[in-house]
Design a protein that fits this description.
Blueprint lengths: L17 H17 L1 H11 L1 H4 L3 E4 L5 H6 L5 E5 L11 E5 L13 E5 L7 H11 L4 E7 L3 H10 L5 H12 L6 H6 L5 E7 L4 E8 L1
Helix pairs in contact: 6-7
Length: 209
């Protein structure tokens, strides 16, 4: 399957739009089914020294994951939406365009959960340059395969209208083994491990060699 990036419905909606609220609820369910946040927390826990230097999450969304990571180190979320009300002062939040703040982003661990598939190849290259300021990279993205499409289709009856569209768009914009490290330009200075799950997720863990 060729990687195809298309606009998602949720991208053009205000955070308080009913369809956006439903979509975030759907995303929490999808994350639970895929086991994404459990895996990310486990990785962070294993690299506490790097976490102490600062944890950055790109596309932090509703902030549920970042809130749980804050116990491991100073945590900062970057997203277009305002800081969620449930997050305390221990979590920093930067609202706005990611590339406008590109120069300031650094720390020990860089996290992205179902976010990088939104980026074009040239943007992923820029992100790879940014990643050089970190010790550990933890990414989970949609797996771009026919089997993943089949899994996504099984969820369509139980998700909202925006998610019905956006979930399938996300899968078509996802990644297969070897693709994301190459697009990010992760060279010999990184020890990269990848794993695809039967639930439709592709997990990348990169440690500075």
């Amino acid at each position: 399957m060729e990687r195809v990036i298309e606009p998602e419905i949720i991208d053009g909606m205000a955070p308080d739009h009913p369809m956006a609220i439903r979509s975030r609820r759907d995303l929490r369910m999808i994350n639970f089914i895929m086991g994404n946040e459990r895996w990310i927390r486990g990785c962070v826990k294993k690299h506490r020294a790097s976490a102490a230097k600062g944890i950055v999450e790109l596309g932090a969304g509703g902030g549920e994951l970042l809130g749980t990571l804050a116990s491991y180190g100073p945590s900062t979320g970057y997203d277009l939406v305002p800081k969620p009300e449930h997050l305390g002062e221990e979590v920093s939040w930067k609202q706005g365009d990611l590339w406008a703040r590109e120069a300031e982003i650094s720390g020990g661990i860089l996290v992205a959960n179902l976010f990088l598939h939104h980026l074009q190849a040239e943007e992923l290259g820029r992100l790879g340059d940014m990643a050089k300021r970190f010790d550990v990279l933890i990414f989970v993205e949609p797996l771009r395969t026919k089997d993943a499409e089949w899994m996504g289709e099984r969820l369509l009856p139980i998700v909202g209208e925006a998610t019905k569209h956006d979930m399938m768009v996300s899968i078509r914009a996802g990644f297969v083994a070897g693709e994301l490290p190459e697009l990010l330009g992760l060279g010999s200075e990184w020890k990269v491990s990848e794993r695809s799950t039967w639930r439709g997720g592709h997990r990348v863990l990169a440690l500075r060699a």
